[in-house]
Amino acid sequence: MLLDVAVSPDDQFVLTADRDEKIRVSWAAAPHSIEAFCLGHTEFVSRIFVVPSHPELLLSSSGDGTLRLWEYRSGRQLQCCDLASLQEPGEHPGHKIVSVDSCPCVGIVRDPWCLCPYAPLRRIHRWPGSRAWPSSCFSLQGLAASRIAFWGQESYVVLLCECVPVVFVFQLDASRQQLVFRQRLTFPHRVWDVVFEETQGLWILQDCRDAPLVLWRPVGGEWQAAPDGAVSQRLCSRLRESWAMLEGSVGADDGFRSLYKATFDNMTSYLKKKEERLQQQLKKKRQRSPLPGSPEQTKKACPGQSALSC
Predict the structure, then answer these.
(1) What integer pLDDT is reported at residue 299 of this predicted model?
(2) Model-level pTM?
(3) CB atoms within 10 A of CB 221
């Protein structure tokens, strides 16, 4: 099952991502001819993106909760970033997003969103009857990216994960071929999409009718929300006019839920049934065998005793 397709800037290679955890690099002129495989993800690959300013580099995201950087022609992995363990510069090492199981509002939350039915930790909670999430009340374990955006002006890479109000900001260090984590942007509402505008900054489309579109800009190396301008107000007004249609199409349930691996422990069930079967067979065998000293056992021993006496 193909989940994403990308083409190299020189149109020589076609890159495909699928549910089988691999990225295939094929020649565009002969797609059956495979140049390389990028192997390393442990879940489905949700998004792939060839860096425009560095066409030899590929970004990929997966249901295993990682963002990876590749040299795709050779299939060599250059870096792997675990999203759940990322810390912002200057952040205390002990600080982390509260997981669902230790969330202080679990007792009153009635609307859990399970991203994967086979992984109980991949859940998100929101307040009953509300479209907003409590601050830091969600888990980032095993989330897949639904969008990868690139801003060539400063080599910024933005990653949007499905169903969570979080946007990750990285910066590509081309000389070292490494991604540097810069910031984690958290929002009170679910983020639907992100896009860069070269002269403006980062536009955020969120599930909020009052403020559906917000603009963020880097200020002193840190991303901050920009004040509402004429352009932003005009765009928000147009979105509110078509909010019902937008909410119905964009606000649908995530499409990755059914792609996570389902693990079944068949061996434990088999061994248990086998043990029960052996116990039943042993019990029946004991019931058929006469006990020592019983009349049946004495009758069987009599012929032998008579022969000896003769």
Answers:
(1) 56
(2) 0.70
(3) 10
Cα–Cα nearest to 24, from 41, 10, 205, 124: 41
Tokens standing for residue 231: 């352009």
Residue 297's pLDDT is 55
Report d(CA 185, CA 18) in Å as an integer. Answer: 28
Count Cβ neighbours within 10 Å for each residue of 63-95 and write b for 16 or more, e otherwise: bbbbbbbbbbbebebeeebebeebeeeeeeeee
Structure tokens at 287: 């019931």
Would you give the distance in Å from CA 73 to the centre of its chain? Answer: 25
Q: Are 25 and 38 in contact (CB under 8 A)?
A: yes
- Inter-residue contact 83 to 143 (CB < 8 Å): yes
Provide the pLDDT for residue 8: 93
3-state SS, residue 270: helix
Give the chain's residues under pLDDT 70: 87-142, 163, 248-255, 264, 290-310
Cα atoms in the Cβ-side hemisphere of radius 13 Å centred on 150: 16
pLDDT, residue 254, reads: 55
pLDDT of residue 296: 57
In angstroms, the Cα distances linking 224 to 137, 182, 203, 236, 295 are 22, 13, 12, 19, 95
For position 245, what pLDDT does the model report?
Answer: 80
3-state DSSP of 50-73 = ECCCCCCEEEEEECCCEEEEEECC
CA 161 to chain centre: 8
199, 181 Cβ separation under 8 angstroms: no
φ, ψ for residue 148, nearest 5 deg: -125, 120
DSSP 197-256: ETTTEEEEEES-SSS-EEEEEEETTEEEEPPP-HHHHHHHHHHHHTHHHHHHHHTSPPS-
